Amino acid sequence: MMGFSWKLFYVFGILLWGFSQRWRTVESNGGSFSCGFPAIYNFGDSNSDTGGISAAMSEILSPNGETFFGHPAGRACDGRLIIDFIAENLKLPYLSAYLDSVGTNFRHGANFATGGSSIRPPGYSPFNLWVQISQFIQFKARTTSLYNQLTLNRRNPLTISNLPRPAEFSQALYTIDIGQNDLAHGFQYTTVKQVLASIPDIIGQLPQAIHTLYNEGARFFWVHNTGPIGCLPVSVLYEISKPWNLDKNGCVRLQNEVAVEFNRQLKDMISQLRAQLPFARFTYVDVYSAKYTLVSDAKNLGFVEAVNFCCGNCMKKGMANGTVYGNPCNHPSKHISWDGIHYSQAANTWVAERILNGSFSDPPLSIQSACHHQTTIL
């Protein structure tokens, strides 16, 4: 009888410990309990491209990269992108571009994002989301086969050190930042009304893509909505002569309204995926609100007016009528926009600091806690 009581006490202790662990996990949703993601697999456009389009199609030249890397680093920016700050936050190396064959290391993930990419074709780039998903499937199959082969034969440990671990594909974080070019391409070649009408079809492409990743073992998704495209200098410059089309912050009102509707439908789609894939964890990140907050308060935050950009035509240098173009401004850190389309490192830093802690996320989890449910205990 005494022995049975001790067993009962032991079982009770285990249950109590389990409950305390569950409580710790819930309490940690503010960001103190780290998921320890071993890798990142990213899909997107130039907002998160770390060298794909530069390697595959058109080299990104200086002065890009001058602020942080000291040389062009495949990024359409003077320095780091938000995806770089994600890697830093998770204490992982910067992601190598899948399309880059020089100096790549895929031990802790790979970047399938390429500049100009959209969710659906046609677009500015042939590397739409479905192409990126196909690249990932091939990448996973080939690296897994090679890793197993090299491990079995115990050959070339240096080669193995650059390969992802097969078991870690299901433990990795899958980041998705795409959709801006679907809207931009529509604004350029159709009407605002047509772009608005196209959103359900664009968003409708995402569930199948995510289901495909899920079937490949992906479980943890960090999804950015699209930013305020109407606040990009390249958008504003076309409408500057029509002040009635601009909002109080100088952004193109109709374009931002379309972006807001795109994001509303994206968030609804994520909610549906949560019900369809209960073993997955989805974090919807409201990048739009973070970026619009930055634009709205630019001067108070130490930036010049958001419509100003640092480097015109930074993708290439040249001379026209005796004037050199492609040279940057003297203080990139004072500009939100680097080249009229892409954000500066200073702006990316500001936005990253506010989205990585979960302040703009649903559920409100930090990126280090994105593997957990947001649970309420009554």
UniProtKB/TrEMBL annotation:
Key word Glycoprotein present: yes
Glycoprotein is among the record's keywords: yes
GO molecular function, one term: hydrolase activity, acting on ester bonds
Recorded superkingdom: Eukaryota
UniProt signal peptide: 1-28
Gene3D superfamilies: SGNH hydrolase
Key words, A-Z: Glycoprotein, Hydrolase, Signal
Family: Belongs to the 'GDSL' lipolytic enzyme family.
Name of this protein: Alpha-L-fucosidase
